[in-house]
């Protein structure tokens, strides 16, 4: 009776940590998606938040924090799953299926490490709270394609403006 109850508890424990690992991975995917969107909006080259570079910097910082949280959730999930696999593998009394550490866990560790490194780099690069850069970049109007010829000054076309754009070349 005791062995049967112990097997039921082990299977219940296994089911609980598998469900918790799934929940952590789903949370990591959601945070990674929102982190990617926040990072894309927070880039200086995007037109999503206009010319307000302070707002863009804060949005990119939020994206970096979301990447850090994604990496932490992935690292916790993968490490917890690997710990349980090794405990069951080396337990001589465990009668269920014994799994080994496979490629999926190594890929999970690498992706968690990359997400943590990328999130920390993005968060540090944003420098939230810096006082020297509160003014956005000055507006520079486009030149509208006034390109002068590089011909010799004695040539008549040397001082006449050309009406071709900056990228009108072959």
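Q: What amino acid sequence fits the structure above?
A:
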């Amino acid at each position: 009776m005791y062995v049967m109850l112990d097997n039921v508890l082990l299977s219940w424990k296994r089911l609980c940590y598998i469900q918790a690992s799934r929940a952590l991975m789903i949370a990591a995917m959601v945070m990674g998606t929102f982190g990617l969107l926040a990072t894309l909006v927070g880039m200086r080259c995007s037109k999503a938040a206009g010319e307000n570079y302070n707002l863009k910097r804060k949005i990119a910082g939020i994206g970096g924090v979301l990447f850090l949280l994604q990496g932490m959730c992935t690292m916790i999930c993968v490490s917890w799953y690997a710990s349980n696999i090794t405990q069951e593998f080396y337990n001589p009394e465990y009668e269920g299926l014994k799994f080994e550490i496979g490629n999926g866990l190594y890929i999970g560790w690498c992706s968690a490490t990359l997400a943590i490194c990328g999130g920390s780099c993005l968060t540090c690069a944003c420098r939230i709270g810096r006082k020297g850069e509160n003014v956005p970049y000055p507006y520079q109007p486009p030149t509208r394609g006034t390109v002068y010829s590089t011909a010799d000054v004695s040539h008549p076309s040397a001082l006449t403006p050309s009406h071709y754009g900056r990228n009108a070349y072959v």
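Q: And what stands out in the fold?
A: Helices lie at 2-42, 53-89, 103-126.
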